[in-house]
Amino acid sequence: MFDLRKLFIIIKREYLTRVRTKAFIITTILIPIGLLAVLAAPVLLQLMESDTAYEIVIKDETNQVYPRLAEIDSVRYVESQGRSIEELRTAITKKEIEGYIVITEEGITSGEEFELIYSGGGGISLVGDITDDIQSVIREVRLERAQASKEIMAILETRPNLKTRKLTAEGEEEESNTFVLFAFGYVMAFIIYAAIFGYGSYVMRSVVEEKTNRIVEIVVSSVKPFELLLGKVLGIGALGVTQFVIWVIAGAGIMAFIGPLAGMFIDPASLEAGQTAAEAFNIPDFSAIGIDVGIYFILFFLLGYLIYSAILAAVGSAVDSEADTQQLMIPVTIPVILAIVMLPKVATDPDSLFSVISSIIPFFSPILMIARIPITDVPFWEIGLSILLMIGTFLGCLALAAKIYKTGILMYGKKASFKEIAKWIRQ
């Protein structure tokens, strides 16, 4: 049985030593700032007007297309004024105009493609805008020639959106934003992937540093190796939970206020009926993400961290320097890499048998289960089973890691082979 007082001292030391560092403070602050920057970017980009005017000459042989394009944008679209094709090409090379389009009667009648000859400036946005304008105007001209009524033309111009609402088990409807939830689950899975190895590497480096400096020889004279291992894992784990709690609270606050903040930069009269400022600036709606997702996020991070940090501590105790850890890290990283490979399949089809089974496997659960939870209604028994299996896996990994750690931390001079590590476990 281990000494709880000594264990608490180790946990406290590992936690306080790192929570006061500049690196911890800076990263804790920068992540919420980065989230704010990502969410504020659509607002700022739409408020920034382009200072470049691209002049596109319309050589309209039908005299029906250019007037309509001029109504859309009289600065961008200008008349050819009788200039020949050669003159227009020369004007492009001299940077007098950006490009030109020839509108022919055959093109309108047959519906063939029109060509934009230009200098290559303006990027994909310019080409996309011109394509939309040309398609809209040509469709309008062809409908008028077919003597379509204004009602039919209005119907063809209408592009209804599909709004999704989820029906809960209680029979109540609630807002559902599938794309946002999919993206959120995907991002959370990658964050946990990075965090597990980030904080787990802290444990491994701490063990290697203490071995290198021979500090561990003094420590183990008064503390059992198992107490030292468990204290390191729990202390750095508490550090990670602290950081994630701060990020979750800050993120929730930012997501709650980004919509009203966007409303300060837009004229309410410019909004369409029922449209919010956030929708006008293409800011994702995070209201469908509940607090339970944040709790699961921290829980699965912590359990995943505990499993892999115990293994990484064993890796650190079996080598004399960080450079020697590469070979031993291969079997540790394989399950995580497999989880990342399976992530697209699980995220796009979260209710399949493959997704259910793979997300319950303890070494995959931290990444795959947290990707499923925001996307679909995961039955509680699946979440509970995955949590229980992860706890059991952690205890098993901790027991094996303790055997390796007990021998490895006092071994110097060479890197242990897999055969030697297996021998330590059997002893």
The amount of beta strand, in percent, is: 5-15%
Using only C-alpha atoms, the radius of gyration works out to: 31 Å
N to C succession of SSEs? HHEHEHEHEHHEEHHHHHHHHHH
Outline type: elongated
What is the helix content? 55-70%
- Based on secondary structure, the structural category is mainly alpha
Number of helices: 17
Q: Are there runs of 5+ residues with pLDDT below 50, and where?
A: none
Strand ordering within the main sheet: 2-1-3-4
What quaternary form is this? single chain
Distance between the termini: 19 Å
Q: What is the β-strand count? A: 6
Mean pLDDT figure: 79
Could you outline the blueprint of secondary structure elements for this entry?
Elements: H1 4-19, H2 22-47, E1 56-60, H3 66-72, E2 77-79, H4 85-93, E3 99-103, H5 105-110, E4 116-118, H6 123-145, H7 150-157, E5 165-167, E6 173-175, H8 178-212, H9 215-219, H10 225-263, H11 277-280, H12 291-317, H13 326-348, H14 353-360, H15 365-375, H16 380-408, H17 418-426
Parallel strand pairs: 1-2, 1-3
Antiparallel strand pairs: 3-4, 5-6
Helix pairs in contact: 1-10, 2-10, 8-10, 8-12, 8-13, 8-15, 10-12, 10-16, 12-15, 12-16, 13-14, 13-15, 14-15, 16-17
